Structures are given as C-alpha cells and as structure tokens.
Amino acid sequence: MRSWPLPHLPALPGQAPALRVRDTRTGEFVTAPGPKAALYVCGITPYDATHLGHAFTYVAFDMLVRVWRDSGLLVEYAQNITDIDDPLFERAEQTDVDWRELADSQIELFRSDMETLRVIPPTDWVAVSDFLDPLETAVRDLIASGRAYGVTGDDGRTDYYHATSDADYASEHLAGIDLIKVFGENGGDPERPGKRHPLDPIVWKGVLGDDFRAEGAKPGVWRPGWHIECALISRDYLGTTIDIQGGGSDLVFPHQEMTSTHHHELDVTVRGQMNTGIVSYEGHKMSKSLGNLVLVSKLVQRGFEPMVVRLALLNHRWDSDWEYTDDELNLAERRVTRWRRTRHTGGAGASELLETVRRHLADNLDTPKALEAIDAWAEANEHADDREGALLFDDMCKTLLGLYL
Ligand SMILES: [Zn+2]
Predict the structure, then answer these.
(1) pLDDT, tens digit, for every residue of 194-231?
(2) Cα 374 to middle of ligand 1, angstroms
(3) N or C: which end of the chain has fewer CB within 10 A?
(4) How far is the CA of 293 from the centre of ligand 1 (A)?
C-alpha cells in the first residue's frame, strides 16, 4: 500500500547511545543489537479516523524509529492495515456505506494525519486485502498438518488454531487475568461448541476456496483471522527476528498473545514488546461508542497547528496512561512559541543540549524529560545571538523529535 512521504531529516553531528526500552511482557529492558532493527506495529482497522489514542501510539513508535536511526541502526518497519474484519463490516452496515469505500476513506484520512504529524512512514505498509493469498496458503498448511481444525455451526465453517499445545501460550505474564472472560469481551468466541480449547484463535472464517473476493460477495461471511494476519505479515516482511512488536495496551491480550503463539509456530523470535498507554477523555478511554473521540483532523480544523498536537503527545511517556484536556494543547502552544524564538536566537551549549536530549531518549524514550531539558535551555538563551546554536537546535527538533518549528 502506498504510504506517505518521508519527512525531511537533517543530519546531526555524532551519534545517540544505544536505546533501551522496557518490554511490556517481562518488565526487563531490551536493546536491539543491530546492525538492522526490525519493528512491527499493529496497524489500524479503518473505521475510526485517527483519534488522539491512535496518534499517541504511532507517534510513540515514530520516536522509536527516530532514536534507532540516530543510534546508527538500519530500521525495517512493517505495519498492517486490517481492512477486512468484522468491526469494519458492522460499521459499514450501520452507516449504510459500502465497506470498501469506508475502508478506503479512513485509510486516506489516516495517511494524511500521519503526514501532518510528520511520522516517518513504515518501510512496508501492508493491507490484508493485498495479503490474502499467503494467508490462505498458511491456513491450508495448518489444516493439512493438523494444527488447525474446522468447526461448523449455524453461521458456517470456522477454522481454529490449536494454540493450547504451545506451552508458552497465555502463561506467566498474563497470570491472574481471567483470560476466557477477557477473550469473550474482546471479540473472542470462547463458548463456541466444538472448539478444542476456549482460547483457540480463529485462523479463517468461512469456507476456504469459496470465491470470497468476487464482486458482490457478502462481507462478514468470510475473513482471515486477525492474529495470524499480523504473525504472517511480520514474518514475511521482517524475517524471523523481530526486535520490537508494538501496539496499544488494549492489544496485549488477546491479540498480541495470539499473534505470539502463531509466531512460535513460524519460528519467529520477538525480542521485546511495547504497548503504549491509553489516552482517555472525560474520564473514559476514547471510543466511538462513548462518543468521546478527539480526532487529530478536527483539532487541526479548529486551528491547532499539527506541531502543537505532536508536542502535546510527546509530553507523555509512551508507556503511561493519560487523560486529554484542552490544557494539553495550550501548554504545547506556549512551548512552541517559546522554542520558535530560540530557533532564531540560538544559544551557547546547543551541542550539550543535543547530548542531553539523546541521553533522555535513549532511556526508554523519555520524551517528557527531553522536552524539559529543551525548556530550560530555551529559557536560558532567550536573548542569545548564536546562529550556529540556532541551526543545530532546529535540526535536532526535526530529526530527533519530528518537530518542524
Ligand atoms: Zn497485530
């Protein structure tokens, strides 16, 4: 899938120290050994335009990409688009629009929001609708080898992966969670008669080989399983070692755990998992059903500069939950104004500032601390006159923070 343009990334002197990030599953710090660094991030299901929760996630992984690049790693980044899935079909039916048109319009909106926020595009942006043949082949292989099995009910045939033969599946890091209950509440079907285990994930819904891609075929009658989709796309585009698998915190279980069991089957090693914090508004996690979505495109329409929105997101560390208020944008607006002044005046110690910012980012992508360091420097240099310092500051903001002042 065509993504969006790469933002301008001026070269910076020197190199960042190696980045360590905290693995959500183990709590331990992980570092990509290089020279390549592979990142897979679970992408959107295109039925809710980019709200601040989405933007926070993709800007967080954009920071990971920037810091990896700055430390000399060659980054390979794949992200999927789940453009064939039940929530999309349901939304299309509720709003009486063609599901493909809905998906395409939402993909376009996401694309323009990412460009506006100066996010570095993935190396490979893969729509499931363009990846059906490899998925179908993989599911057929699983069935042939007895690793997947079919169950037929009133709504036709569904194939499941027999995940519970994997000893690491849903183990220690999920201890204490009622997995069957959580699975049922998040689109799973633990109660379905005929399943060998309640936590076996769907690999294919509908009859394989039916002409499901034909014009006019009813959506929702067939679809690939979401979890095997991410496992297979990541393996095909990144290989068998993935440094970081990422997504929102709401994907830890069931989605990423089920993806992980498919990874085991495919001999894929994932070195670390990063799950970004939840953004809430008016006391609740942003969701269409609660009607409390704050859309990036709407904020920009209201007159907030995209760089103000980006700076507001960077003011929270990637793994923290936070609540959005308009004050977040007001604070970011004041910061942008102050920093713009320094962008012209510059100041002594810009090289030291670059080092400090790099040090904070290398420590689990601590963006709030990096921003505070810039605040202090900007305040101290408000009346300086240092062209060289000004240029270095401006380049650092662009390349390391994605802020085009
Ligand atoms: Zn995924």
Answers:
(1) 999 999 999 999 877 765 666 556 666 788 999 999 99
(2) 35
(3) N
(4) 22
